[in-house]
Amino acid sequence: MNLLTEQIQTVDNFIWQPFAMPLVLVVVGGLITLATGFVQIRRFPTAVRLALQGAITRDSNANDGTGTITQFQALSTALASTVGNGNIGGVATAILIGGPGAIFWMWVTAAVGMATKYAEAVLGVHYRVTRETGELASGPMYYIAQGIPNKLIGHILSYLFAFFGACAALFGTGNMAQSNTIARTFAEAARTVVGVDVPLWFPGILITTAVG
């Protein structure tokens, strides 16, 4: 486990060099913001209306257009993968490490990051494919493979993205952080209340059984 942690830390230090990745995120988001004419501000009311369409009442138009889920279901799916690790744990960690000033920079990156997210969504819709079952499949893997002119490089990068995305979901931003927090809380409570040392793998088995 220590070896895996050291390897992850090495990669993390390489990617998140001081100001490198945050600067890239802000610059790219700023350029997309200018190119789209501040779409995150101009179209915000429209985005809210479409995203919440059919969420409270049964709206017959909630599933208009080509798709297998409603706009609100798509929004809920997107939020399910971000709320928690990023919006709660990530914010607390940023304030702990960088102080209250980190909040300002989170606002800045969020403001321009909405334009980046918009661009990702547009690419996802443009390059999505329809499977034989009629279901739609989309995502970065597809628009990387189809959008890059060099097909060989595009396919290689798409497979790499899918692989590392799966690793991130499994070992990082997926369910491991939540499972680790629950297991440690369970073990600490057992040690404090009952006086029993519970190995961390035991709560892990309980969580696995509970969620199927």
From TrEMBL:
Its main location: membrane. GO terms for cellular component: plasma membrane. It is found in: Cell membrane. Coiled coil: none annotated. It is a multi-pass membrane protein. The keyword Glycoprotein does not apply. One of its GO terms (molecular function) is amino acid:sodium symporter activity. The chain crosses the membrane at residues 20-39, 88-108, 152-171. This is Sodium:alanine symporter family protein. It comes from marine metagenome.
